[in-house]
Amino acid sequence: MEAAIEGITQSLISGHISGYEVIDVDIEIKEIDYLEDQSTLIAFKTCAAYALTEALKDGESKLLEPFFHSQCSCPPRKLYR
């Protein structure tokens, strides 16, 4: 279970769209199958990261770009007319 959580966390940090971190999401792991001869920590990490990527694609996630207002002030004697 910890390996799957680590895979999801790494995938959220590395981002799905243009490498930006994914925030404000709730994730629920419903089922993990364990096969003695095939289940490894790296397999759980990889599968969890892949499942998250596919879920974000299916959910039509969008990049919300921040925009801001800036103000610049200058003393009147420094303004050229």
Helix content: 25-40%
Give the topology string: H per helix, E per strand: HH
What is the oligomer described by this structure?
single chain
Spans with pLDDT under 50 lasting ≥5 residues? none
Query: How confident is the prediction overall: mean pLDDT?
Result: 85
What can be said about the biggest beta sheet?
A: none
Short overview:
The chain is mainly alpha-helical and 81 residues long. It contains two helices and no strands.
Question: Can you characterise this structure?
Answer:
With 81 residues, the chain is an all-alpha fold. It has one domain. α1 crosses α2. The longest helix has 18 residues.
How are the SSEs ordered, and which strands pair?
Blueprint: H1 2-14, H2 41-58
Helix pairs in contact: 1-2
Features:
mainly alpha, about 80 residues, 2 helices
